[in-house]
Write a structure and sequence with these properties.
single chain, Isopropylmalate Dehydrogenase, binds 3-isopropylmalic acid, two-stranded antiparallel ribbon, globular, 361 residues, 19% strand, 2 domains, alpha/beta, ten-stranded mixed sheet, binds magnesium ion
Length: 361
C-alpha cells in the first residue's frame, strides 16, 4: 500500500502530520513518501506541481493531500499558482469523481448556524464531477487590447463543456452510491443539480443523467436548478440523499453543505479515478490566517485518511476504527476552536490528533 503524502501549504503540514500519526498507529504496513506541492513546491522548485511530485502521486495507490494556496501567490501567472497543483493532479490522474459527504455529528449540532432540528441526523453525499466543466473547458483566455497587455484586456472568457461519456460515468457513480446507501437505510434518491433553464451544457447534463437513471429503477431521481438547490440546502437539507452535479456548481454547493455540519473543519473528501486510485483531502483550504499556530482542526484530514483506507486501500475495518475514534473524542467533549462551544474543552491540532490515536484502542 503506497501512499503519497502531499501536505502543501498553510495548515496543510500540521493537519496531515496528525493524519499520518493516526495511520501509523494502525497495525497496517504502509509505504509513505512525502513531497512538496503548491506554494511550497513553487518556492523550492519554481513550479506548484513538480514532475517528481506528479510522478510519485501517479505511482501510488493513494494520495493524502493537505491544502494549497496563500494570498502571497495571487500575483503569479495562473499556471504557477498553487491551485494549479490540485487541478493538475485531478486532471493527470483522471480523478473525475469527487465525494463530499456532509454528515452532522450529533455532538456538533449546536456548532452549526442552523437550527438543530434542521440538521440533526443530517447525512447527505455531494458527488461533484471533477475533471470537466468550465474548470477545464477550451478555449479560455483574455482578448488582448490594442496595447498588448492583460491589464488593458477588453474581455475574458472560459468555456463550459461536458461530453456525454463524462456525464454518464459520474451519473453511474451517483446512482451506485445511492444504491449502496439505500442498502444501509437511506432513502435511495439522486438529485441532479443543473441550470438547464439557461445553459445548453446543463440541459444536456439533465438529459444524459435521466437516460442513465433508467438503469436504476430502484433509485428515485429528481432534478433541481442550482439556485434552488442552494436555497433548499439551508431550508430543508434533510430532503437530500445523494446530490450529483458538475464541477463548478459542486464546488459552491459543497462549501455551502459543509456549514450544515457545524464546521468545514470536519469534512473529508475523496476524489477517485476509474482504477480506484484516489486523492484524499479535507474539503477546507489552507487557512493561511491560522497556519503555524497549532489551532487547526485535523479531523477532516483524519477522516479523509479513513476514506482512503476504505476506497483505495481496501481496509474498510480500519476506516471504521478511525471514524469511531473521532466520534469518541467528540463525545469526550474535545473541540478545536472552530467547533468549540460553551461547556466543551478547547484543544489544539496536536492534542486532537493524540486524542484520536488514544481513542483507537
Ligand atoms: C476545492 C477548491 C479548489 C476547487 C481550488 C483550490 C482549485 O476550492 O477543492 O473545492 O475549486 O476545486
Ligand atoms: Mg472549493
Amino acid at each position: 500500500m503506497k501512499i503519497a503524502v502531499l501536505p502543501g501549504d498553510g495548515i496543510g503540514t500540521e493537519i496531515v502530520a496528525e493524519a499520518v500519526k493516526v495511520l501509523n498507529t494502525l497495525d497496517l504496513k504502509f509505504e509513505m513518501e512525502t513531497a512538496l506541492v503548491g506554494g511550497a513546491a513553487y518556492d523550492a522548485y519554481g513550479h506548484p506541481l513538480p514532475e517528481a511530485t506528479l510522478k510519485l502521486a501517479m505511482a501510488s495507490d493513494a494520495v493524502l493531500f493537505g491544502a494549497v494556496g496563500d494570498w502571497k501567490y495571487d500575483t503569479l501567472d495562473r499556471p504557477l499558482r498553487p491551485e494549479q497543483a490540485i487541478l493538475g493532479l485531478r486532471k493527470n490522474m483522471g480523478l473525475f469523481a469527487n465525494f463530499r459527504p456532509a454528515i452532522c455529528y450529533e455532538q456538533l449540532v449546536g456548532a452549526s448556524s442552523l437550527k438543530p432540528e434542521l440538521i440533526s441526523g443530517l447525512d447527505i453525499l455531494i458527488i461533484r464531477e471533477l475533471t470537466g466543466d468550465i474548470y477545464f473547458g477550451q478555449p479560455r483566455g483574455r482578448r488582448i487590447a490594442t496595447d498588448g497587455h492583460f491589464p488593458g484586456a477588453e474581455e475574458a472568457f472560459d468555456t463550459m463543456r461536458y461530453s456525454k461519456p463524462e456525464i454518464e460515468r459520474i451519473a453511474h457513480v451517483a446512482f451506485q452510491a445511492a444504491r449502496k446507501r439505500k442498502a444501509a437505510g437511506s432513502e435511495g434518491r439522486v438529485t441532479s443539480v443543473d441550470k438547464a433553464n439557461v445553459l445548453e451544457t446543463f440541459q444536456f447534463w439533465k438529459d444524459v443523467v435521466t437516460e442513465v437513471g433508467k438503469a436504476y429503477p430502484d433509485i428515485a431521481l429528481d432534478h433541481m436548478y442550482v439556485d434552488n438547490a442552494a436555497m433548499q440546502l439551508v431550508k430543508e437539507p434533510k430532503r437530500f440523499d445523494v446530490v450529483v452535479t458538475g464541477n463548478m456548481f459542486g464546488d459552491i454547493l459543497s462549501d455551502e453543505a459543509s456549514m450544515l455540519t457545524g464546521s468545514i473543519g470536519m469534512l473529508p473528501s475523496a476524489s477517485l479515478n476509474t482504477k480506484s486510485q484516489g486523492l484524499y483531502e479535507p474539503s477546507h483550504g489552507s487557512a493561511p490566517d491560522i497556519a503555524g499556530k497549532g489551532v487547526a482542526n485535523p479531523l477532516a484530514t483524519i477522516l479523509s485518511a479513513a476514506m482512503m483506507l476504505r476506497f483505495s486501500l481496501n481496509q474498510g475495518e480500519a476506516a471504521e476504527r478511525i471514524e469511531a475514534a473521532v466520534q469518541k473524542v467528540l463525545a469526550q467533549g474535545l473541540r478545536t476552536g472552530d467547533i468549540w462551544s460553551e461547556g466543551t474543552t478547547k484543544v489544539g491540532t496536536l492534542e486532537m490528533g493524540d486524542a484520536v490515536v488514544k481513542a483507537l484502542d
